[in-house]
Amino acid sequence: MDFRYPTSVINAHFSLIKPFKPMNQEIFTINNLWVLVATILVFIMHLGFASLEAGLTRAKNTVNILFKNTIIPAIGLLTYAFIGFNLMYPGDAFIGGFFGLSGLGLSLPEGWDTPAYDEGFTFYTDFIFQAMFAATAATIVSGAVAERIKLGPFIFFSILYVGICYPIVGMWKWGGGFLDSLDTPFYDFAGSTIVHSVGGWGALVGAFLLGPRLGKYTEKGMKPIPGHSIPMATIGVFLLWFGWFGFNGGSVLSADPGDVSRVFVTTAIAGAAGAFGALFASYFKFKTYDITMVLNGILAGLVGITAGADLMGVGESAIIGFVGGIIVVFGVVLFDKIKIDDPVGAISVHLLGGIWGTLAVGLFGDLAGMSQVLSQLLGIAVVAAFCFATSWLIFFSLKRSIGIRVDEREELEGLDINEHSMQAYPDFASKD
Amino acid sequence: MDFRYPTSVINAHFSLIKPFKPMNQEIFTINNLWVLVATILVFIMHLGFASLEAGLTRAKNTVNILFKNTIIPAIGLLTYAFIGFNLMYPGDAFIGGFFGLSGLGLSLPEGWDTPAYDEGFTFYTDFIFQAMFAATAATIVSGAVAERIKLGPFIFFSILYVGICYPIVGMWKWGGGFLDSLDTPFYDFAGSTIVHSVGGWGALVGAFLLGPRLGKYTEKGMKPIPGHSIPMATIGVFLLWFGWFGFNGGSVLSADPGDVSRVFVTTAIAGAAGAFGALFASYFKFKTYDITMVLNGILAGLVGITAGADLMGVGESAIIGFVGGIIVVFGVVLFDKIKIDDPVGAISVHLLGGIWGTLAVGLFGDLAGMSQVLSQLLGIAVVAAFCFATSWLIFFSLKRSIGIRVDEREELEGLDINEHSMQAYPDFASKD
Amino acid sequence: MDFRYPTSVINAHFSLIKPFKPMNQEIFTINNLWVLVATILVFIMHLGFASLEAGLTRAKNTVNILFKNTIIPAIGLLTYAFIGFNLMYPGDAFIGGFFGLSGLGLSLPEGWDTPAYDEGFTFYTDFIFQAMFAATAATIVSGAVAERIKLGPFIFFSILYVGICYPIVGMWKWGGGFLDSLDTPFYDFAGSTIVHSVGGWGALVGAFLLGPRLGKYTEKGMKPIPGHSIPMATIGVFLLWFGWFGFNGGSVLSADPGDVSRVFVTTAIAGAAGAFGALFASYFKFKTYDITMVLNGILAGLVGITAGADLMGVGESAIIGFVGGIIVVFGVVLFDKIKIDDPVGAISVHLLGGIWGTLAVGLFGDLAGMSQVLSQLLGIAVVAAFCFATSWLIFFSLKRSIGIRVDEREELEGLDINEHSMQAYPDFASKD
């Protein structure tokens, strides 16, 4: 039996939308081409994350954040080739729907480049599309722990989190695991939970265990630490939105005209509505037009639509996005209140946005209903428990052994000089 | 009868090039995929505009210009879903070829995801491709009015201009309106007039009603106000050129190999020739190698080829682009002479370039001829009249009511601090 | 006989992989679409080069480097249309496999938009894809000669090198010339030698004839001159990697699912492994985490895989990329030792990486073997001889006539003020 795209999903998919046309080489070639194009759209999201996180942090830590965001996709690609893909799609090598491993490294199955492997793509396409996804989980973390984490421990965390934790969770749903075998299967089209919340939980644990940046929460209250380049943050969000058309659109796993175009529309509308949700909420809250909130609102709208991008209509997408944009503003305020310092708002965007989007599948669209709500809650809960536990385990072990936080002098001077012996902008005078 | 892509266009198209192959699911899927990919190429043009306009203005207004360019695509997507698409493609709901409205919001027609809807794309693809176009009109305006317009009124203008004015004009041609029903139909392949001049007229009216920036035109003559980041401007132009392959290439409305590849070549060559036109003209005029002129020359070349990208050969594209590049240099000089202050050169690029490109359809390529010239002039004139009048009406009403210009102190300090309570680059020391 | 894609290559290709399916309009349309998408991915690599080179040089020379990188693609497109394409694919107009010219300008052959022209693309697609490649050769040079070359002579060099030298070398292999007619044909899938080393030799000659930047090599040893914007350098490398999927993936010259997906995987893995190769080598050498080395390591991995991207497995790609990353670190050290000043590391990346990748075709993958090694060495050697000689001839003639280096004052003040009368960042205070 082929566990890779389990019957329940395919059936759900078929009954919701419409049967595929009988397969032929032409359609196979088109499908495969689209998934490959989607792959590089997801790839460029890593530049989006890099730009966004660099823009929203200080100039003295820019090399550090760019270094992490450059090395993470490399880690993701290599670990996914070595073990992640086999953990996520273990085929028959299953232990009770919770864990499976089908080997190490990639080996080309018979007929890997024909529809016999899959009607939507070749084996290599399958691997590379999923591999590009994998790295995003760690990238989400890097924003939340920015400006104070040691480089070595962060890379160590990333290798384990991307290489092992992410694919195990992914398997629970996309690899045919227990979340996919529920009577009402948990539904997560492109990863509001499976990708974004996985990253979000790691981000929450990391930010909590590190503690806030020096000077962020003083006796006189929270002191905003503005990011050093709004242009870079803006470039980042546009590139993420751009890439999201591949992230969601490619998750159709074919070039089916109706499905892909629907996903494009829901993705575009949710992002746009997220901008307005955050605009209104932040104007209401802060009485100013805060571009960083609008940018994060777009992302929250996108994270929100990700779980049900193939299930929603235009109005529903607008609602999901708009609420996502509101959530992110109050999330940022909330985390500051409880003194969890997240320099870029990653926890609000990816964790809260991911939870909201996952729940929204039960509230809106083609699958809405109470039993779906319960399955969504179950999925959210088990992923939370696993990711919280594993990232705590990794970060806490690192904290107790080699330490995870740079020392005070290093933090004040900046990580660039201390960890990388260089500056991001050596030709320009800084303000202080 | 299907007014959406009216018979006259299709016939013109067919007779010029060649008949479509008989439709089948494979070709439909390929066509749809290309239009979707083109959609996201047009999407990323919004980042291109954002970067270009931010780069060519001062650091103290950067958050403001980025804010506008971020919110405009969101406005475009939402208003186009609510009303624009129905205004632009009203089907039978016509009043004399000038105005039509087929409802509010989007409703999926029967067979929306099959070739019965259109041989080139599904309903959702049709919507989202056109929606991405819509927002560009307002983005063009934002550059010309930069560094002095109040945020609220600009957003109000954008909503009306993108949501209502743009689709009405678009309908005249692309929705089967009166410009498309002339004996010799007005021709505008991808929108030299329908998109770029529409934006350009709004830009001209806005810049005129606002007046120049403080200190721009003094008794001692014009004082150049250099943009704060040439790298951002360069990134912007490259992204615009990149996206233009989708803007023009997607306007083929299918993946027809001959048509799309021809459009790619004419688009590339016109941009390249525009660079040289502006290089020579600006060296002749200013005796220096002015990169901002070269960048705007590329854009003028691209705007110029847009009306006839499917009609020209390589040599004709080079001429159109080269002349476009020359026009932009003298346009910038001209507008400075009459004290219309356009910080980024948007009026020269999009309005003059758009007029030139529209005329060029009568002068070069497959449709060249006197009766085509007359139709092109008629189209240019009626679009001018309508856009000038409506943008004047909107901007002037706003000016007389809530005001459109920030006060002097705010302009001198910068819009970022005053409208957004933040700075684009808080870590860096400014030159003064 | 059709020399454009010579029998030997097609045969090698067929025997290695599998026969093409019988041609039809659907597959032709898909193939053509992919090559067009790949074309614009290669296009955006020019922004990648622009960003990378600007980021790794000083702020006072930024306008200059951006100017060059903007004008080069324009030069490439226009010269390739005028003469380059006819030099590279001369058809029957051959002189002994070394030189051929089939005319000037582009003329559409009969059946140019049907599979009769080529099963993978139309004539226009063929031209535009190759034209985008052409300009990269000169772009590589511009990095190595940055911060001290005069603008005029550099543009003159670029026109000759891109317009004439590059297509002649390209013909030797891709146009069916003598390197393709060896008993064991020289193999270079997407241009480790034909593109990257061609650029690399020009870069070496240019950097040598110019001499090092003032203050780079002092009596006290080499003084690092850090680039002014690590974010721009990072953006550049990500865009290059992004575009490389089109550079290598498009070189399949069809959308064949197996071939394109394989190339995507090898390209991604080699880039990732290159990051780690350079990370380890630079940590070993400098005891710090040097992001510029990691960025160049990615590029060296990508250059390395380019010659055999369709021949390698995952493990082989990882080795090739990893070694490429190591090479670049020691290359940079080496060129500094012999006082060849390459501000961005272009010679190490493109020349050394290109040689390594070309050799690797003989060492790993489907064609590995001693006779292949010899053919690869022969190809490397003749391209070296030709490019070294021609670029020496051009640069040396320029040096002896109008001069190629700006004067001392101009170099110290920066090229932006002196050649362009402007600054890249006029609003910001510099550090000195």
From TrEMBL, chains A, B, C:
Which GO biological process annotations does it have? ammonium homeostasis
Q: Name one Pfam family in it.
A: Ammonium_transp
Q: Which family does it belong to?
A: Belongs to the ammonia transporter channel (TC 1.A.11.2) family.
Q: Which GO terms describe its cellular component?
A: plasma membrane
Segments forming a coiled coil: none
This protein is called: Ammonium transporter
Source species, domain of life: Bacteria
> Species name for this entry?
Indibacter alkaliphilus (strain CCUG 57479 / KCTC 22604 / LW1)
Tell me which NCBIfam families the record gives.
Answer: amt
This protein's UniProt keywords? Ammonia transport, Membrane, Transmembrane, Transmembrane helix, Transport
Ammonium transporter AmtB-like domain span: 33-425
Lineage, broadest ranks? Bacteria, Pseudomonadati, Bacteroidota, Cytophagia, Cytophagales
State where the protein is found: Cell membrane; Membrane
In which broad location class does this protein mainly occur, judging by the first location in its UniProt entry?
Answer: membrane
Name the SUPFAM superfamilies on file.
Ammonium transporter (SSF111352)
- The residue ranges crossing the membrane are 33-56, 121-144, 151-169, 189-210, 230-247, 263-284, 291-312, 318-335, 347-365, 377-398
